[in-house]
Every structure is written in structure tokens, then in C-alpha cells.
Amino acid sequence: MDDWYNVTQEDIYKNGGKGLLLSYSGSPTKALQQIYPEHDWMLWRFKMAPKGYWQSVLKDVNEQKRIIDWLSAQLSIKCLEDWYRVSINRIQTMIQIESWKILAQILETVHSEHNWDIKTLRTIGRQSKSSQRELMLAVQQLFPEHRTFKYFDI
Fold it and tell me: What is the DSSP letter of 48?
């Protein structure tokens, strides 16, 4: 089922599914939700999120929590401070979130108990910290017996 997240409207049209898809307003996500209602779809994972999806997420705390929990697992987030070391570019390789601002709003809602440094969370120049973190995670996978070392800010 996970393969469906990578299929686009264009893919379906190219393979003769235009008529079928048009009966679902041209939306692969609507079609899949109707055809496979028993599956717990993660709409944020589709190549193209349904129109207005991210605005509706900002009103749905349960969906926000699902997104953050899924992203945390995918990005090996161990503590909330790790979010400062993840680039929006890295996140956008996994989900089609419109902006870092939306992700910051979701983090603020889901983890309202945390005292977020919004200025740091939204800064653009975090690519080096993100790269450092990616390298550290790769080294930890190669040498699991040394998982206790911590990375530090430069």
C-alpha cells in the first residue's frame, strides 16, 4: 500500500486511468480512500497532498500528532531539541509540507509544553546543523555500540 504514496495523477492518466480518476474529482487520494477505506492513509505522504490539506491539519490536533510522531520516527528524533537540527529540505523529501512555518505551528501545538525558540526554529541557515545530525545518525548506525556519544553545536 505504501507504493501508492508515490503515484501521481499524471501517472494514473498515462496508464489509462483518467476515466476512473475523474469519477473521484481527479484526486488520487480521494480515489484511494474510497477504494481502500480500511487502510489508515497518511495524506501528508502523498506526492501531492489534497487541496487545502495543510490548512485543515492546522485545525486537527490528532492529525498533527500523527504527522509529528511519523516524522520523528523517520528522522530519528530522540528529543525535541533535535527539531532545531533538521532542515526543511530534508523534511520536504518525505512530505510535501508547504513551509517551515506550518511545521513550526504544528510542533508548537503538539508539544505546547515545550518552550520553543521560534526564531531559531524558523531560521534559514540551519543546513550545516542538519548535515551534522545526518552524519551523526549514519555513524551511529554503522557503530551501534557507540550510540551514547552526543553531537554538539558549532
Answer: S
**DSSP calls for 14-42:** HTT-HHHHHTTTT-HHHHHHHH-TTS---
Cell of 102: 506550518
Q: What is the 3-state secondary structure (H, E, C) of 50-90?
A: CCCHHHHHCCCHHHHHHHHHHHHHHHCCCCHHHHHHCCHHH
Say if residues 92 and 45 touch (Cβ distance below 8 Å): no
Give the gyration radius of the chain's Cα atoms: 18
16: left (phi over 0), alpha (psi -120 to 50) or beta: left
CA distance 106 to 13: 34
Q: pTM for the complete prediction?
A: 0.75
Digit-by-digit pLDDT tens for the chain (154 residues) are 999 999 999 999 999 999 999 999 889 999 999 999 999 999 999 988 888 899 999 999 999 999 999 999 999 999 998 888 888 888 888 998 878 888 899 999 999 999 998 887 776 434 445 566 566 667 767 777 765 555 544 4
